[in-house]
Amino acid sequence: MFIIQVVIIGILLVFSILLLLTLILMAFPKLVNAKRNNSVKEKQLDSPTQKSVPVVNQAPVPEQDYTLISIITAAIAAYRSENGENADVGSFRVVAFKRATNRK
Amino acid sequence: MSALINTAVELLKASGFYSIIANFMDEGWKTLVMLCISLLLIYLAIVKKFEPLLLLPIAFGMLLANLPLAELASTSEGGLLYYLYQGVKLKIYPPLIFLGIGVMTDFGPLIANPKSLLLGAAAQVGIFITFIGASLIGFTSKEAGAIAMIGGADGPTAIFTAQALAEHLTPTIAVAAYSYMALVPVIQPPIMRALTTKKERAIRMTQLREVSKKERIFFPILVTLIVSLLLPSAATLVGMLMLGNLIRESGVCDRLAKTAENELMNIVTILLGISVGSTASASNFLQAKTLGILFLGMFAFSMGTATGVLFGKLLCVITKGKVNPLIGAAGVSAVPMAARIAQKVGREEDPNNYLLMHAMGPNVAGVIGSAVAAGILITML
Known about the structure:
The complex is a heterodimer of chains A (104) and B (381). Chain A has 104 residues and is mostly helical. Helix content of chain A is 54%, strand content 0%. Chain A has helices spanning 2-32, 48-51, 62-82. Chain A is elongated and about 75 Å long. The relative contact order of chain A is 0.05. Chain B has 381 residues and is an all-alpha fold. Chain B has one domain (90-380). In chain B, α12 packs across α19 (288-318) and α13 crosses α20. Chain B starts with a helix and ends with a helix. Classes of the chains: A mainly alpha (104), B mainly alpha (381). Chains A and B meet through α1 and α2 of A and α8, α9, α10, α15 and α20 of B.
């Protein structure tokens, strides 16, 4: 009988405590970010941000490297333009790149 | 000449080899078995990479503790391992490990999707089901509670609970907990596939919202206050976990964060591992109970996975297909391996399905959930 009591009370307590935390966390954005612009809404999973999630054992795709190079190139070019270092973006070019990790 | 021979014989008699052979029928064979077990665990840690960071020190501690006449077991008062073991006995090391885990954990996915906490709670049901099973097969209620915590898939919590409830079972529980955590990729996928349909496994979940810095800072303070005020016995583990996380998220304690997640974590891991291993003497380990504990540990782990997935299915129904039930399996802690398994099994049905961040929510919720479950068992038993 004691065992059943422990199990029932235990499960109820675990759920109650975590449910309480859940409810508080659900109200969290409103409480904590009262002044914050609440415009960030849920987007579909296939957005670029979600795709950046690290995936274990993902096979390397050659196109990904070119995409990455394009993004890095654009970011550097934009940065240099903003800082007046090189308004002529067209003169910027990537001469070499190396993989960050060894892929087999 | 005879004096020389006498000295040689005395030296031989003082050796461990002689001790094993002379007492072979009593303790000698047990010592040999324990040395073989420790060598097997060393093999599993190094070659098979089964949680090597902890299994290797545990296995070597076990080896040292079973060296005849070396007096290195945790019970040999005055020896090095005896003093190191005080950190386990006084329940100091597991909370320090939690501090490091807190620094390394990103609770963002959990804050962004609070429902994950319920999945973390559901996966703890396996602990209580195992508690019933262990009690029914003859373990005392305290032993049953300590064994059941293996289902939390959280090594420090399992050790912490074992120390509080059944100190003599600590080495077996620690070995079982870390072994099964290493076997997550083997144990979980069949259960996950068996309890879900192809359609459910292919469910894509919406992207998580952005979590502000304020939320990240308030979260550890809030969790500590609520959990510790409701369940003071969980305050040690939850408090240290959340302290670590606050150090990380505050952004003003970089030096402390780096120390906690690197040097401190590594030092305590070595001390915890070798201390736990040093408790595994033949008299403690070579019992029929050990097999029962290993079986119950596997059962607890499987039940935790199953209840997590089943609750995920319930959430899937309630949310009209917005939750992929696979992420429920990640509720059994084992961070981040369990979340990676959810991702892997999900991608088997849809290679473009990205569940990892969604699974990280229940995964870190499982850490909180298992600490709460441990607190409940310690309080009630």
